[in-house]
Amino acid sequence: NLKRNLTTTGRRHTFASSGTHPFRTVASSSPSAPLPADRETSEDPPNPRAKSGGRLVVESSTSPRRQISEATVDTNRARVVLRVDTARYEFPVVWLRDNCQCERCFHGGSSSRVLDWERFDVDRVKVMQVRVVDSGRSLELVWGNEESEEGHRSVYGLEWLLKRSFKEEDTERYLKEWYRPEPIVWGVDGFGEVLREFSFDEVLRDDGALRQWIEALIAYGVVMIKGAPLTENECRRLADRVGFIRKTHYGEEFIVKAKEGTSNVAYLSTPLQMHTDLPYYDYKPGCNLLHCLVQSNNRVGGENLIADGFYVAEQLRHHYPDDFRLLSETLVDWSDLGSDEAGSFHSIYRAPVICIGRDGRLERINHSVPQRDSHFSVPIDRVEPWYRAMQRFVTILHREAVSFKTAPGDILTFSNVRMVHGRTGYTDTAANTRHIVGAYLDWDEIYSKLRVLKAASD
User: Fold this and answer.
1) N or C end of the chain: smaller count of CB under 10 Å?
2) All structural domains of the chain
3) Ordered DSSP codes for 235-275
4) What is the structure's pLDDT at 38?
5) C-alpha separations of 165 from 87, 123, 385 in Å
6) pTM of the entire predicted model
7) Higher pLDDT, 9 or 212
């Protein structure tokens, strides 16, 4: 099986920016090169180091030469036990029956289980015979104990079984490779090592470049795409390459430039505080696409600001656990009230600033000063401690933020559930304007596309 890495080839670019942050060009046809090694986070919270590196590796848990040397049933624990070379694998009997691959139980055309669960009885599932077939490459089970089951046969390929192994290391590998690869968090010191740069034309025409862009977006949360035509339809073309645009109450594609009488602070030329978009959505858009058509020609002003919200959250978790607990447990009221071309809207959602999953991993960052409601539906004794924790979050956020200026033809792509972004102010005149076209993608579509690309190439 092919082991792939994100490539980091070509010359390093310095963006027109208020800082000097290099961008790594990625060429889809170049040999793979490893990502930078992990750097440990400093124990000194005022100056943490970025953590970068790691790899999303695609490896099979099986080899073409592996064979089943022995198959038995452990009746006490209701498991089928396989010896594969020198390794031992166990599979629950009930799981094997539930996943029979015969035409009666499984529809191959839709890859869907059709086993009749109205008649499925966990307590009556029983293996009558177990055999190794196909020269050790398959397992055959004969079921019984019910009239409808008597003589029912199931055959499972060894490779199929090993890919679904219940060993902890195998399940973890599957989740990292096929469910959601783990993010690689970074701070300001690591930005030059993690930001990748791709050609718009290559991403649109080459599946290898498309896959590498998606992998980099998942790993680092932010990727630059260069060379897009200067028309307002390019975000849609990029989104269509993955799936489709996510529509919100601002429409599908939205124009970001100074507007008089706007109902959104993003359409002002004044500084735009760092934020995540649409925290008032229960299922908020996962990925931002910001296409620069016209950039402010002021020497200073109009710079993008971006920071890894997951990195900031991990700093809090490690150095200020009480603040992390407050920001991850306290429900905040987020809201948006106004009207746009799509009509009037009044959105409300309650969620913490730091959202963590049941496994303790970070899932989502919510932060927007303009969209944080004056309603704060929490016990009064929690209010001031929450504000102090939030102040620390914002302080670290700005310390770890990078600034740079996109150029016409650039599409800045980044995770809206992880990255916190903003913009410095600029002077808007007839001779000095800024014109950005934005759109959103959902992570469900991004992950789906990556799996399709992996299956086609690995």
Assistant:
1) N
2) 68-172 (3.30.2020.30), 188-457 (3.60.130.10)
3) HHHHHHHHS-PPPBTTBSSEEES--TT-SSGGGSSS-EEEE
4) 39
5) 12, 23, 46
6) 0.83
7) 212
CB neighbour class for 170 (10 Å; exposed up to 12, middle 13-18, buried from 19): middle
Task: For the beta carbon of residue 129, count every other beta carbon within 10 angstroms.
Answer: 12
**Which tens digits make up the pLDDT trace of 196-210?**
999 999 999 999 999
The pair of three-digit structure tokens given for residue 98, joined into one six-digit string: 């539930």
* Structure token digits, residue 221: 């949360």
Say how far apart CA 75 and CA 71 lie, in whole Å.
13
290 touches 256 (CB < 8 A): yes
Distance CA(424)–CA(329), nearest Å, equals: 31
Give the burial string for 90-118 (b: 16+ CB within 10 Å, else e): ebebeebbebbeeeebbeeeeeeeeeeee
Q: pLDDT value at position 431?
A: 61
Judged by DSSP in three states, 218 sits in helix
Range in 122-136, 164-178, 268-282, 334-348 with the lowest mean pLDDT = 268-282
- Report DSSP state, residue 372: B
What Å distances lie between residue 258 and 57, 338, 418, 424, 426, CA to CA?
A: 44, 17, 26, 13, 10
- CA atoms of 437 and 196, how far apart (whole Å): 21
Tokens of 294: 């016209």
| Least confident span in 30-44, 201-215, 316-330, 443-457 | 30-44
Whether the predicted pLDDT of 42 surpasses 50: no
C-alpha angle 458/176/331, rounded to 5°? 140
Q: What is the pLDDT of residues 93-132, one digit of tens each?
A: 999 999 999 999 999 999 999 999 998 999 999 999 999 9
